[in-house]
Specification:
Chain A is an alpha+beta fold. Helices cover about 20% and strands about 25% of the residues of chain A. Chain A has a single domain (about 1-75), classed as Ubiquitin-like (UB roll) (Roll). Chain B is built from three helices and nine strands, in the order βαββββαβββαβ. In chain B, strands 1-6-8-2 form a four-stranded mixed beta sheet. In chain B, strands 7-5-9 form a three-stranded antiparallel beta sheet, with no helix packed on it. The chains are: A alpha+beta, B alpha+beta.
Chain lengths: ~80, ~130, ~130, ~80
């Protein structure tokens, strides 16, 4: 299955792109996706403890089981206001 | 509870927002917060901050916060404006109004809302030198 | 610290007050409180509240509070307007602005100032039926 | 010596006047003044635990020693805001 990934804020600079997509096995979790992305974009590794993850418009944790077509967002701590 | 949310690149007109306030007879307290861009960031002088927003998620998260706020306090109305894009030093980037019967409730709800938005609403800033 | 105090029977123009705000580059937070006359007092409907003020003492007590506020928080400016005489339901009787570098300071100072004025400033209300 | 007393808020209704003056011995305190006023205006007795007292523009306690010409204010709890 395919999931699309969107990077926000300086995560775009760390990866050099705003969007990416990954092919994953059915049953893969966000944790699995993060491993794949860290291999592809090693700059994400240093940020792993402060990476926030959403699927669609909701926050999700690393054990969330991905579905085909999910739109995942990765970003650093938010700073509104 | 009345709710108004605006995420916009346009300058924020606080006087006009105040003039548009509506309060029914049971309400005694309106609390406002204006967050203004400061002239330095991490001790370096800056001229502006550029705000980036993941808008659909930001709107969803704001409305979840409004839902929770309504459960916690007897607030009649909350209005919130957040600027995005480039906001110059000295200009407001955030404006919040909370209307409630008594001041304790308005202050508590307004402070809670700002604390929470800084925790969950996907907006990021980048200093402009 | 800039301080502005107005005790007046004239209607309070919040939009004009906001438009007159001055903040220097180090300031990031302005907190406002508008206290509005509610439509009932002790469960009885009212049409207005009449405020009586012992003015020289009220001004002195306000300035003592401003002195103490300045000692406690890094506030750049405080402005306060209190209406006296007859204030109709739905109209503001009290307006407070506190400007500081960060929101925690502005909120704390603004809430403290209101709590204290309700303790020491000689102003009294009488409901108008 | 003479002290002038001013009543505020519903204390004016309790006493039936806005101002009064009292002749007191040198060294008299606010406590002495209050006793004299309570004898003259018995409605003040019920309020004695919630009576605030100022001399000029400063709050003072019952042991304050009065001076000739002092302007004393008596009033109920304040209610600004």
């Amino acid at each position: 299955m395919t999931v699309r990934v969107q990077f926000w804020s300086y995560f775009k600079d760390l990866t050099g792109c705003a969007q990416a997509s990954e092919e994953l096995a059915v049953g893969a979790t966000i944790g699995d996706l993060l491993q794949r992305l860290q291999a592809r974009f090693p700059n994400l590794i240093a940020m792993q403890n402060s990476t926030l993850i959403a699927v669609g418009v909701e926050y999700q944790s690393r054990d969330y089981v991905l579905k085909d077509g999910d739109e995942v967002s990765l970003f650093p701590p938010v700073q509104g206001g | 509870m009345l709710r108004s949310l605006l995420i916009s690149p346009d300058p924020l007109d606080e006087s006009a927002l105040i003039a548009a306030r509506r309060m029914t007879g049971g309400m005694g307290a309106a609390v406002y917060f204006s967050g203004v861009v400061r002239g330095s960031e991490a001790s370096q002088p800056i001229s502006a901050i550029e705000y980036e927003c993941f808008r659909p998620m930001a709107e969803h998260q704001f409305h979840q916060l409004f839902d929770e706020l309504e459960r916690r306090w007897p607030v009649e109305s909350v209005r919130l404006v957040h600027r995005i894009g480039v906001v110059k030093v000295g200009e407001p980037s955030l404006w919040v109004e909370v209307v409630a019967p008594h001041r304790g409730e308005s202050f508590a709800a307004c402070q809670w809302l700002i604390d929470e938005l800084k925790r969950v609403v996907p907006i990021w800033k980048k200093p402009v030198g």
